[in-house]
Design a protein that fits this description.
28% of the residues lie in helices and 32% in strands. The chain has four helices and nine strands. The chain has a six-stranded antiparallel β-sheet. It has a three-stranded antiparallel β-sheet with strand order 1-2-8. Strand 1 (17-22) and strand 2 (25-30) form a beta hairpin. The protein starts with a helix and ends with a strand.
């Protein structure tokens, strides 16, 4: 029995994650992608508050405007009206602010091979809005 359990654990190890929590938003990145993700939690958006942004490291190191996997942004109700006109949907609210996932619409990689890895990393990242109220 012990050998069977050990074999099962070795062939099916539990995934581990690097987890970042900023303003009730939790981002989990599988540790196998640790070297491929740059995490930026500095508010660097002139129009609204950027809670956190994730970049694909190989493209980001080539040029700091490349490699955006996604960012989580927060805005007020006035900004929300303008954003809704652009087709962006909101994920959560704290009653005063509204949170959404901004996905890049332009190319964020340098080659088809890089895109394949970029997409794999993006699809593996999970987002949780904690105790914020979900918007459907």
């Amino acid at each position: 029995i012990v050998v069977a359990v050990c074999f099962g654990l070795l062939t099916n190890p539990k995934s581990r994650y690097d987890t970042y929590t900023v303003e009730h938003v939790t981002i989990s990145i599988p540790t196998e992608y640790h070297e491929l993700v740059v995490v930026d939690n500095v508010n660097n958006d002139e129009w609204m508050h950027q809670v956190i942004a994730l970049y694909y490291s190989p493209a980001y190191e080539f040029h700091t405007d490349f490699g955006l996997l996604f960012s989580i942004k927060r805005c007020n109700q006035e900004q929300m009206q303008s954003i809704l006109e652009n087709g962006i949907s909101f994920e959560a609210t704290d009653g005063k602010n509204y949170y959404f996932v901004y996905e890049p619409t332009d190319v964020q990689w340098r080659s088809p091979e890089e895109y394949s890895e970029y997409k794999k990393v993006r699809d593996a990242v999970t987002i949780s809005f904690g105790n914020l109220q979900n918007i459907q």
